[in-house]
Amino acid sequence: MCDHPSLAGSHRRGLVCSLTAVLALMGCGGARPVPPANAPGSSSGSSGTPSGTSSRISSRTQFAAPPWFHQPPRSASSLFFVGDATGLDSEASARDLAIQKAMTELTNYCGATVQSDFSSTEREANGQHEYVVSLTVDIAGDALTVREAVVRKTSAGTGSDGRYDAYALIEWPKAQFEAVLRTQKNRGMRALEAYRLAEAAFEARDATKTQDHLREAKSILGPMRATIDLDDGTLKNTSLLFEAVRGLAERLDLFTRERAHVVAVSVVCDEDRARQRCRAEQVGAMRQAVSDAGFRVSAEEIDDNLARKILDAETPKSEGSTRSAGYVLAIRFDAEFLSTDGPFTFFRCGARGVLYNTTTGRILDVSEITPSKAGHPKREGAIQKGCDEAGSKVKAWIKDALEQQAESIGQDRRAEAHR
Question: Is the pTM value of this prediction over 0.70?
Answer without folding.
Answer: no
